[in-house]
Design brief:
404 residues; alpha+beta; Ribosomal Protein S5, domain 2; Pdz3 Domain; 3 domains; 4-stranded antiparallel beta sheet; 10 helices; 35% helix; 25% strand; globular; Lon_Prtase; serine-type endopeptidase activity; transmembrane; Lon proteolytic domain-containing protein; transmembrane helix
Length: 404
């Protein structure tokens, strides 16, 4: 009995030992630990994948990024008609008592624009848009701070762009009439003076320019055309006398002119910022949507006005897009988004694109769409000559902007 009891005890001990080693199911316990550990690792892996997916979706769709994306915008044929209060009127309307049937012209002069994402008036840029824009040659990504002040509101931005547009149209009217030798008058006042100017501390804000004297010869200033004509023929560093009306008093300021900041530009400057109150011989209206702002349509406005007043002298059968700011003396200035504007113009059928001198040089590394030729322009007279050359088909001497 003692042996049986010993055997039973031995058997039970062995069974318990095997239970500890193999488990109740008879499966090795070490394997059970491995299975449980694997399941925990699998759960962590799925959790990490879930977190990564959520983060990716958040960054791609929800999280705003401090960038601005420039894209091709709509274009407008300024030689066409538009509807205003149920009436058909030219987009650029010259009310000089003559008939100007611009809509019957087969060719086109296109105003070009840039659409923007991420500015004060538009939705913030998301991650998927940045990725899309990066691989699209027609789009451009810029840091927000490079385009807008940090604290500017949408309303403030719209107001600034509207002011730019108003000034652009006034400058275009002045430049076009000057180029066509049609007289007009304007009151020119000093808005500010550069510290680099010899007139700093001498010329005052709200001074009204009356005349400029050099070598004993006084020339009256009745318009911006007079002012620029005088300065364009004056060498930098020339001693002059500037007559201004300050309040009710007439003052004479002795000062030297300074060199223009633009390379290659002739003449000199006063080094002052001016405001001009124009008095044109007849109304010249620009009927475009108020949503379009900025200064970059000045050149195409001026060319359209010249073409309309001259009875279609500049445009034939071709579709030509133009960009560039315009000064009252006919100088073409640089703009932003030139590549995007070329893509927009090509999309709307333009075959030629007139670009400011500065922007023309920017195109050498740009991938442009096929079927449109960018041409360099520097001033209104030369831009008009480019249009005449395109109209006549004599384009072999046009200066094409270098590009890919």
């Amino acid at each position: 009995m003692g042996q049986v009891s010993n055997y039973s005890t031995s058997f039970d001990s062995k069974h318990l030992t095997e239970g500890k080693v193999f488990g109740s199911s008879g499966v090795p316990f070490a394997h059970q630990v491995s299975v449980k550990t694997g399941r925990r690792k699998s759960r962590w892996a799925w959790l990490l994948i879930f977190v990564a997916v959520v983060a990716a979706v958040y960054l791609a769709v929800i999280h705003p990024f401090p960038y601005v994306i420039e894209m091709p915008g709509p274009t407008i044929n300024l030689l066409a008609n538009t509807q205003i209060d149920g009436k058909t009127r030219p987009i650029v309307e010259v009310s000089d008592g003559k008939n100007h049937p611009t809509s019957q012209v087969p060719g086109q002069l296109r105003l070009v624009t840039v659409s923007m994402r991420g500015g004060p008036s538009t939705a913030a840029v998301r991650g998927w848009e940045l990725i899309s824009a990066y691989f699209d040659p027609s789009q451009n990504i810029l840091p927000y701070s490079q385009v807008f002040p940090e604290d500017v509101s949408a309303e403030e931005e719209r107001k600034v762009q509207k002011q730019f547009m108003t000034s652009s149209q006034d400058n275009a009217r002045a430049a076009a009439l000057t180029a066509l030798e049609i007289p007009f008058s304007s009151k020119i006042t000093i808005a500010g003076v550069s510290e680099k100017s010899d007139g700093y501390g001498k010329l005052k804000e709200n001074d009204v320019l009356v005349a400029i004297s050099h070598n004993g010869v006084e020339q009256q200033i009745t318009s911006t055309a007079d002012l620029y004509r005088i300065l364009d023929s004056t060498e930098p560093g020339t001693q002059i006398k500037v007559s201004v009306k300050r309040g009710s008093q007439l003052e004479t300021i002795e000062m030297k002119t300074i060199a223009p900041g633009e390379e290659g530009r002739k003449g000199s400057l006063l080094g002052a910022f001016i405001n001009a109150d124009y008095h044109f011989p007849y109304p010249i209206s620009v009927n475009i949507p108020e949503s379009i702002g900025g200064p970059s349509a000045g050149t195409v406005f001026a060319l359209t006005m010249m073409n309309t007043i001259s009875g279609g002298e500049l445009i034939g059968n071709d579709s030509v897009a133009v960009t560039g700011t315009m000064s009252p003396n006919g100088m073409v200035g640089p703009i932003g988004g030139v590549v995007q504007k070329i893509y927009g113009a090509q999309h709307d059928g333009a075959k030629w694109f007139l670009a400011p001198d500065y922007n023309c040089d920017q195109l050498k590394d740009a991938k442009l769409p096929e079927g449109i030729t960018p041409v360099r322009i520097t001033n209104l007279g030369q831009a008009a000559d480019v249009l005449r050359a395109i109209k006549s088909g004599q384009t072999d001497k046009l200066e094409v902007c270098p590009h890919k």
